[in-house]
Amino acid sequence: MSVVYQACRQFNRLIGSSTINRVSYKFLSTGKSYEYIITEKKGEKQNVGMITLNRPKALNALCDALMREVNDALSNFESDSSIGAVILTGSEKAFAAGADIKEMKNHIYSLTIKENFLAHWSAVSQCRKPVIAAVNGYALGGGCELAMMCDIIYAGDKAKFGQPEITIGTIPGAGGTQRLTRVVGKSKAMEMCLTGTPISSQEAEKLGLVSKVVPADQLLTEALKLAEKIASHSKLTTVMCKEAVNAAYETTLAQGLLFEKRMFHGTFATADQKEGMAAFAEKRPPSFKDN
Ligand code: CAA
What we know:
Elements: H1 3-15, H2 19-29, E1 37-42, E2 48-53, H3 64-79, E3 85-89, E4 94-96, H4 101-104, H5 109-114, E5 131-135, E6 138-140, H6 142-149, E7 152-156, E8 160-162, H7 179-184, H8 186-195, E9 199-200, H9 201-207, E10 212-214, H10 219-231, H11 235-247, H12 253-267, H13 271-281
Parallel strand pairs: 2-3, 3-5, 4-6, 5-7, 6-8, 7-10
Antiparallel strand pairs: 1-2, 8-9
Helix pairs in contact: 1-2, 11-12
The structure holds acetoacetyl-coenzyme A (CAA).
Acetoacetyl-coenzyme A is lined by residues 58-59, 61, 97-102, 118, 138, 140-142, 145, 164-165, 168, 172-174, 176.
């Protein structure tokens, strides 16, 4: 029994058990407890963090509280040195059907500016560890945008990707006009954003939005295989590699190539480069120490 658990029990006994006490007691006794997501450690070496969006009644619509939980879980996996990659997934019916329309329908303009509405969503794209979106079912609006904030998208064969905001009188607000256009090009992005019509996972794969399509019931197995493979490498080198690939979106070719070259040079200052290359020469598997 943890010290926190015991202290909580004693505290509740002393002052009686109001609802608030019971809630905090449950939270503290179970470690991290979330309302809209499930978090687990997965893989043979327990080195993959899995976040499952779990708001089935609303097809995982991304209400504010859900996105805050995702950010919190990601930040915990980020600071957990045993975790080498994270999978973000939903249910078989929906990865996520977008931002919560009912929650935002009465928002007023001045407040969206004052509170910088949806600004906290970008935390997903700032995670330094690789994040894989495993998408089954609907990835619409903010759901498609959330998947695009991840580094790699695997999709089930019945998944649907779309930006339907135009059909409800608004436009994509979490990267749909920008990330989608950079990936699929102007014509297709325009078509998707201006019609709101979703595309299939097969089309998404052809366009380069998705890197692999698998039967829906094998999606998590395949995503986990991918995550374990990524997590088997040096976490230090992985951060450098992810930063270099991401630089391709933010720089000119010349700046990006220079950044890549300096990162490449930088790997020679790491013990993991010495270990990786020595292991190759000695015909044995490397044992990376992440330094
Ligand atoms: N927000 C809030 N609730 C949602 C939702 C959303 N984005 N999507 C679905 N739901 C709710 C429905 O209201 C319904 O709730 P009730 O049972 O309480 O009525 C429940 O989820 C099930 O949905 P449906 O009955 O509509 O299910 P369906 O299978 O008939 O249709 C669907 C599925 C095609 C995905 C349809 O739900 C739909 O079109 N959803 C909205 C998609 C959308 O427009 N997304 C963009 C949102 S705006 C945005 O994301 C802005 C941004 O860029 C950040």
